[in-house]
């Protein structure tokens, strides 16, 4: 990625609905070369997609929970099984395999504590290889998805 590609990515992170003409103007290119670069960035997998940023509270999802999950018997089979089951959880926003006290860190967004209790009892605690679950409820969101700072 050269300097222009990084500018294109930065502008699209700020506003994914920019027209090609607007984007070209912002990065100092004419529309045709700009569109070619965007398509190459998409084909290379650098730009993975475009999506709407939904206000969680406006759609009734007011509770964010960060769940630390520890696995009892470490094996590739258990890790694969946990990953598959976690990916199917309703309201899952992100999930990471991590180092430290827990093995997985999942972010789940639900309507309320009762909805989270259902996620916990129906999806997480039903996994026999889970040894420990720790739920951390977000009190306030400070920052959400800032654009990646790509160095020049």
From TrEMBL:
Transmembrane segments: none annotated. The keyword Transcription regulation applies. This is AsnC family transcriptional regulator. The keyword Transmembrane helix does not apply. GO terms for molecular function: sequence-specific DNA binding. Keywords: DNA-binding, Transcription, Transcription regulation. Residues 1-62 form the HTH asnC-type domain. PROSITE patterns: HTH_ASNC_1, HTH_ASNC_2. InterPro entries: ArsR-like_HTH (IPR011991), AsnC-type_HTH_dom (IPR000485), Dimeric_a/b-barrel (IPR011008), Tscrpt_reg_AsnC-like (IPR019888), Tscrpt_reg_AsnC/Lrp_C (IPR019887), Tscrpt_reg_HTH_AsnC-type_CS (IPR019885), WH-like_DNA-bd_sf (IPR036388), WH_DNA-bd_sf (IPR036390). GO terms for cellular component: cytosol. Pfam families: AsnC_trans_reg, HTH_24. SUPFAM superfamilies: Dimeric alpha+beta barrel, Winged helix' DNA-binding domain. GO terms for biological process: regulation of DNA-templated transcription; response to amino acid.
